[in-house]
């Protein structure tokens, strides 16, 4: 779990540094015309730019997520899928929190122009994929427990 978090955090911070170094805020580069752009923005809000300039609220939320991930990882015997999900969540939360603390905004840069999806970054994607993996594992566990309970009911 921690290895996944470290890799995500390092890649996230490297990519954000490169974006800030190479592109001015508001500047973009087309990667695949009509589909994908690298477009530098500094987001002072949360997902989809909600609650702009509430930096410390989002730092607090990130701290709660970080503590929750660490506590959960210590209390449960996690399988590989759960460990990867928790690692993605942890790395992404720390990555965006670092931006908020150091530069008071989050560097976003991936823009899928084909669907006009809001601009995001690796930390955002890691958080989303991490939560998705945890949900999948939760449903898989519930399904197994349900099957075991139904077998016990039949006995």
Polypeptide structure, described:
Pathway: Protein modification; lipoprotein biosynthesis (signal peptide cleavage). It is found in: Cell membrane. It catalyses: Release of signal peptides from bacterial membrane prolipoproteins. Hydrolyzes -Xaa-Yaa-Zaa-|-(S,diacylglyceryl)Cys-, in which Xaa is hydrophobic (preferably Leu), and Yaa (Ala or Ser) and Zaa (Gly or Ala) have small, neutral side chains. This protein specifically catalyzes the removal of signal peptides from prolipoproteins. This protein is α+β, with helices and mostly antiparallel strands. The protein has one domain (2-141). Helices cover 64% and strands 13% of the residues. The chain has helices at 2-22, 55-75, 80-103, 122-154, and strands at residues 28-32, 36-43, 106-112. Strands 1-2-3 form a 3-stranded antiparallel sheet. Strand 1 and strand 2 form a beta hairpin. Helix 1 runs parallel beside helix 3 (80-103), helix 2 packs antiparallel against helix 3 (80-103) and helix 3 packs antiparallel against helix 4 (122-154). The longest helix is centred in the last third of the chain and has 33 residues, at 122-154.
């Amino acid at each position: 779990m921690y290895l996944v978090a470290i890799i995500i955090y390092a890649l996230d911070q490297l990519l954000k540094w490169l974006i800030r170094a190479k592109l001015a805020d508001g500047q973009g580069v087309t990667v695949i015309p009509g589909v994908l752009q690298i477009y530098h923005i500094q987001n002072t809000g949360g997902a989809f730019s909600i609650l702009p300039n509430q930096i410390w609220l989002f730092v607090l939320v990130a701290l709660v997520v970080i503590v929750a991930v660490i506590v959960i990882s210590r209390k449960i015997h996690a399988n590989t899928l759960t460990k990867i999900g928790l690692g993605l969540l942890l790395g992404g939360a720390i990555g965006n929190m670092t931006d908020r603390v150091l530069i008071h905004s989050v560097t976003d840069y991936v823009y899928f122009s084909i669907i006009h999806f809001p601009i995001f970054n690796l930390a955002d994607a890691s958080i989303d994929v991490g939560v998705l993996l945890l949900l999948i594992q939760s449903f898989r566990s519930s399904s197994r427990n349900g099957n075991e309970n139904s077998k016990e009911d039949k006995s």
